[in-house]
Design a protein that fits this description.
- There is one protein chain.
- By secondary structure, the protein is of the alpha+beta class.
- Helix content is 64%, strand content 13%.
- The protein is built from 3 helices and 6 strands; from the N terminus they run H-H-H-E-E-E-E-E-E.
- The radius of gyration is 50 Å and the shape is elongated.
Length: 277
């Protein structure tokens, strides 16, 4: 074998060893990508599914949070609207009171002026009367004294007779009034010793507004005899919804609070409020 052949043989042997090393390295670093993707425990498909599920859950939580935020904003807007309405009503009431105060001040001034004028006239008339009385007494003292005595007695007699007639008429009126009141008390199973300040009058209205914190506004108020502390029942058709207690009463409306332990359903605008007979 020549020297060139030996060199080629050695070179082929070295290259064989080098390629064998490459083959071993490639085999050692080889990965089965199908198993990496399809593995049910740690595969890429399972990780992708988990990521998508987590993304859907986060999206659902985000949607719920947005809905809650929208509901809270609507509730706040409604509460602000109610407060704005109350503010406008208070401003109107304040304006009316200011106008009434101005009218009363003007009436007081006019009354003071009229009173001063009347006192001046009265003083002048008193002076004239005193002068006339002095003249009459100086000229007709004896006769007038007797005449005045008769007149006084006659006046007293007439006054007594008139008082008797008035008392008799008043007695008849009171008797009739007592009879009517007794009939009313008997019809309502009451006596003259029963307290009636907390008994609401017989009335019927409707719910005009439902606010937060179980507060409702109704269409009847002070002009209908409704006072703070009175209780009314609420119904819708034949369905009983509960009872409210009045916490504030205005001339033509009132505000009541729903009694939680007597609530039988959700109270809405337009429901009927009434007192039981």
């Amino acid at each position: 074998m020549t020297l060139l052949g030996k060199i080629l043989t050695v070179l082929i042997f070295v290259m064989s060893i080098l390629f064998m090393g490459f083959a071993v390295a490639v085999y050692a670093t080889h990965r089965n990508w199908r198993d990496e993707i399809k593995d049910p425990a740690t595969g890429l498909e399972k990780r992708l599914t988990d990521e998508r599920r987590e993304r859907d859950e986060k999206q659902s939580q985000l949607d719920q949070t947005r809905k809650k935020l929208a509901m809270e904003r609507a509730s706040r807007r409604q509460a602000l609207s109610g407060l704005e309405t109350q503010r406008q009503e208070l401003i109107t009431a304040r304006t009316q009171l200011a106008q009434r105060n101005a009218d009363l001040v003007l009436q007081q001034r006019n009354a003071t002026t009229a009173l001063d004028t009347a006192q001046t006239n009265l003083q002048r008339l008193k002076e004239e009367v005193e002068k006339l009385r002095a003249e009459i007494l100086s000229t007709q003292r004896d006769r007038d004294s007797q005449f005045q005595d008769v007149v006084k007695k006659t006046d007293l007699l007439n006054q007594a007779e008139s008082a008797i007639k008035l008392l008799e008429q008043r007695e008849k009126q009171l008797a009739a009034q007592v009879a009517r009141m007794t009939a009313v008390l008997g019809k309502n199973d009451l006596s003259e010793f029963d307290p009636v300040i907390d008994i609401p009058p017989r009335l019927e209205g409707e719910v005009v507004k439902v606010g937060s914190s179980d507060m409702v506004e109704i269409s009847v108020g002070l002009h209908d005899g409704l006072r703070k502390g009175h209780q009314l029942d609420v119904s819708r058709g034949n369905r009983y919804l509960g009872r409210i207690i009045i916490v504030e009463s205005f001339p033509d409306r009132a505000v009541g609070e729903i009694i939680p332990e007597l609530r039988k359903g959700r109270i809405r605008r337009g429901d009927r409020v009434f007192t039981k007979v």
